[in-house]
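Entry type: protein chain
Record version: 2
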Amino acid sequence: MRSAKVPPRGCSLPLERAIVDFAADQAFAQTRIKLREHWGFMIGESTIQGIVLGHARNMFEASQTSPDFPEAPMAAKISMAHAKGTRTPVYAGAIEGGVEIAGRQLFERSVRAGFGADSRVHAVGDVAPWSVGQVEEQFGAQGSYLIDLYHHVCEYLSDAAKAIVSRAAPQEARMAAR
């Protein structure tokens, strides 16, 4: 127990992660079955519930703190991505909730990543007006937003190619020619 840093009647962090992952998809009772199937042993449903609710409480409490806009300059130049395809460091996390909550979470993650008074945030994403609006509202002149039309156009072209040509080889040739 000491070397694994697991308290008596407790679980290791990897096991807690598995429990939370399984419980996110199904009921606590079904999570017991998945644990036996994947890990080879059973844990009580009340233990599973306690672990999952404990992690949920920690996540909720962490989301309640809202950092102030930084006044100090930071050395970090931050690039953030809302969609796929960035080549610069990305500080990620799930952005959930309503528009204002998602905007606040984006700001908080930026501050944790090193956003300061002289930093810039560049977001890349789809055409959702709320995304553009939240970048403007949260970061003001220090933020910019690029609508990723290329990614969406490629998706549409891929769907069109599949509709026009039913065999895989001609589809791949048509898409390669774009």
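Comment: The longest strand covers residues 121-125.
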